[in-house]
Amino acid sequence: MEMFASAADSPRVDDLSGDSAFARRWRGFMTARIAIGTMLLALLGALFVMAPALGIDRWLVAVCAAYLAAALIVRLFARPLPAGHSFDPQWVSTIGVDLVAFSTLQLLHAGGINYSPLFALPVLMGSVLGSPLLALGTAAGVTLVLLGDAWVTSLHLPADSAASFLQAGLTGTGYFALAVVVNQLAARLIGEERAARLSQHAARVQAQVNELVIETLADGVLVADGECRVHAANPAARMLLGFGHAGGAGAFSLRAQTAWQPLVDLAQLTFAQHGAQRGELSISEPGAGTRRMHVRTRLTPSHEAHAESLCVIFLQDLREMEARLRTEKLAAMGRMSAAMAHEIRNPLAAIAQANALMEEDLHDPGQQQLAGLVRKNAQRLAQIVDEILDVTRVRGQSAGGALVLQLDAAVAAACSDWTMQTCSGPRLQLHLGAPSARVPFEADHLRRVLVNLLDNALRYAGEQAGAIRAETRLVRGQASLHVWSDGEPLEPSVQRHLFEPFFSSESRSSGLGLYICRELCERHAATIAYRRCTLSENSDAPEGNEFVVSFAPLASPLAGTASFDTMAA
Predict the structure, then answer these.
(1) Would the pTM count as exceeding 0.85?
(2) What are the pLDDT digits (tens) for 134-154?
(3) How far apart are the first and last CA of the chain?
(4) Sheet holding 252-253, edge to edge
(5) At a CB cut-off of 8 Å and minimum separation 6, what does 82 contact?
(6) b/e for 242-277, b at 16 or more Cβ within 10 A?
(7) Would residue 490 be called left, alpha or beta, if left means φ above 0 and alpha means ψ between -120 and 50 degrees?
C-alpha cells in the first residue's frame, strides 16, 4: 500500500490557470512567506535598534531583508508549476530559500529566539504543492538542521546535550508525520477537485445537449412553478402562445393573459393532485383565431425535502397533428392505389381489346350503343389508372438533370396538340408574352402540367370563344404560365383542398390532376397557385378561375412584344 500520492496526482499544466485551486494555494503560501519575512525583518530590526545588548548583527537584519525581497520577487513574477519527481528550480527559489534563511537564524540563535516553528512553512509547502519526494526531502532537511543545531548546543552545554537531541528528534519526527499526513490530504483533495471538474464538464455538456434538443423540438415545452411563472420555454412553445418569432427569452407568467387561463388551470391541477395531467385546450390568439392544442403535464421529481417541484408542460398543435395524420393516411392510400392500379391495368386492357373485337361484328344499333358505352367507361378507367400510376412516377423522379427549354415554344406546341385532341380550338386563346424566356423545366413535365390545367379548365369553362386562355409572362426576370377559364367561382372549402390527392368536386374525376401538377412543379423548384381574377383591369371584364405556375428564376432577355393567336381546330 502506497504511503504517498504518486506524481501522477500532481496538477496538470491545464489546471494551473489563475483561478484554479492549485494556483490559489500557491499564492496563499507565497503571501505567507511575505508575511513571515516582514515579521522577521521588523522583529530583528527593532531588536537591533532597541536592544543592542542581544548582539544582533547588521548582516542578520540583511538576511531577513534579503529573504523578504526574494519572497516578494517570487510572488510577483513567478508562476505556479507542478512538481516533478525531483527537486526543480522552483523548489530552490521557495523552499530552498526558506530552509537557508530559517537555518541561519536557528543556528545563530539570533536574539535568543527559537525559530524551529518556522520550518513548518516549507514542510507544508512541499507537502501541499510538491511531489512525495519533495515533501520527504524537505522534512529530512529540516530534521538535519535541527540535529545540527542540537549538536552545536551540546558543544557549548554538554549537560543539556541529551535534551537537545531528544527535542530535535521529536520535532523532526513530527515534521515527517506532518509531511505524510498533509501530502495524503493534498493528494485526495486534488483527486476530488479533478473529479468535480470532470463532473462539471460532463454536466455542462449534457446541459448544452439538452438545451439544443429542447430548442429544436417541434412540440412546445414550458417549465412553470407553483405560481404559474414560466422559467423556461422553447421557441415552439412561444410560437404556440402567440409570441411570434420576435418573442424574448425571459421569464413570464401564465397569468399575464386571460387567453392562457386553461394552461393555468391544468398546471394548478397538476400541483394539487401531484400527478401527470393531459387534455385538449383552446387558446384564443388576438387576430389569429383560436388554436387547439393537446397538452400534457409532468412534475419534476424533488430530491430534497425543501426543494420545489416544477411543472413541465408539453404543447402540441392539434392542427399539425391532424396534418401529419392526414399525410400518413394519404401516403398509405397512395401506395394501396398504386398497387390496385397495377392489378387493374391488365384486366382492363383485356376488356377494352375484347370489346373492340366484338364491335367489329355488331350491326344492331342497340348493341353498338352498349359496346360504345363499354368502350367509353373502359377509357375512363384507363385514364384513372394512368393518373394513379403517374403519381408514383412523379414521386420517384428527380429533377437534377432538368433541361432548360424555351417557354413560349413549349407552351405553343402543347396547346396545339391539346386543341387537336379535344377539338376545342375556338375556345382557347393563347397569349405568348415571353418569346425569349427560358425556364428550368423538362419539356414532357411542362406538357403534362399544361395539359392537366387545360383539361381542368375545359371541364368547367363555357362554350363561347375565348372561354379558356393560356398566357406566358416575363416580369422582372420572373417567368410564369397562366391558365384562365370563365368557370364559376370555387367554394372556399374546395379551394383549401385543391392540390390534395384524391380530392375532386366532381364525382367522375380521380382528383389527381392538380396534385400531379403541384408535384411536378415542386420537382423543378416552381410553384403553382389558384386565384379568382379578371382578364384585365376593365371593370366589365369577366371574372374567372386562374392557375399560375411561377418558374424558378433564370437569367433571360426581356420579353418581346406580346402576340395573340387563336388556335384553330
Answers:
(1) no
(2) 888 888 988 888 888 888 878
(3) 106
(4) 252-253, 229-233, 220-224, 311-317, 289-299, 277-285
(5) 10, 11, 12, 13, 16, 22
(6) beeeeeeeeebebeebebbebbbebbbebbeeeeeb
(7) beta
